[in-house]
Structure formats: C-alpha cells, structure tokens
Write a structure and sequence with these properties.
29% of the residues lie in helices and 25% in strands. The chain contains three helices and six strands. Strand 3 and strand 4 (85-92) form a beta hairpin. It has helices at 2-31, 40-43, 62-65, and strands at 36-38, 47-49, 72-79, 85-92, 112-114, 124-131. Strands 1-6-3-4 form a four-stranded mixed β-sheet. A two-stranded antiparallel ribbon has the order 2-5.
Length: 132
C-alpha cells in the first residue's frame, strides 16, 4: 500500500509540474502576439497572400498609373493573427500626400495564409515602398 501511495504522489507531482510549465508557456505565446515590424521581403517568412498578389495599382485610375513619371508611396499595414490586413496606410514619398482610407478599402480585403514557420500565427506590421 505504501508503494501505491508513493506512486500516486509522484504521478500527482509530475502532472502538477507539467501543468504549471504548460501555463507558463501559454502566457509567453500570448505576450508575443503584438505585431513584429518587418519589411515586405521578411513578411514572406510569416504570411503569404491567399489566391493572388497584392495589387496596389487598383487604388489609382488607369490614367494616373500609365504616365511616364514614376511615383513612390510608403505603405504600412498589419496582418493580424487571423490573416486579415488591417490599418492600411499609404503616403506619397514625393509630396507627403496621404491616400484616403476610402480608396484603401479594396486593398484591405486581402487575406493571408500563415507559413509553416508561423504556426503561432504571429501578427506582423509591414513597412515598404511601392513604385508605379
């Protein structure tokens, strides 16, 4: 009977320690869910677009993008833990003109798949430059 009690006690202590370790790890994974700041190249390590590439040109009328003068924009957005694009911001690097949020609604509809390395679905903030 003493051996049965001793085994039960060892099993209880082991399960308790495993439970405590599991709770400690769970707390750490939630703490890292604030977005990591990345550039467009680094984003590919965490997320890939569903079904299509992002078309930034859809924001502008065809005549505006067909001129010979190149224009560049600083673009930033967040991909949240569910793969949705949020807080899209686009500003001209030439004159500082901000693209209105209403023009960015179609771009905000893009969805992303997490990569195999991003099993925790880490949210990211992407900062890049696009040229037309």
């Amino acid at each position: 009977m003493y051996h049965t009690f001793k085994r039960a006690r060892i099993l209880f202590v082991t399960l308790f320690l495993l439970n405590v370790a599991g709770c400690a790890n769970q707390g750490l994974s939630h703490a890292t869910q604030s977005p990591i700041k990345l550039n467009a190249s680094e984003m590919a390590y965490f997320w890939v677009t569903k079904d299509t590439l992002i078309s930034w040109q859809q924001i502008f009328p065809q005549s505006a993008t067909s001129s010979h003068k190149k224009t560049s924009y600083a673009v930033s957005f967040i991909i949240d833990t569910s793969g949705a694009m949020k807080q899209v911001n686009m500003v001209s690097t030439v004159d500082g003109t901000k693209i209105p949020a209403e023009k960015l609604t179609d771009v905000s509809n893009y969805q992303f798949y997490p990569t195999a390395k991003n099993f925790s679905r880490q949210a990211v903030m992407v900062n890049t430059i696009v040229e037309f």
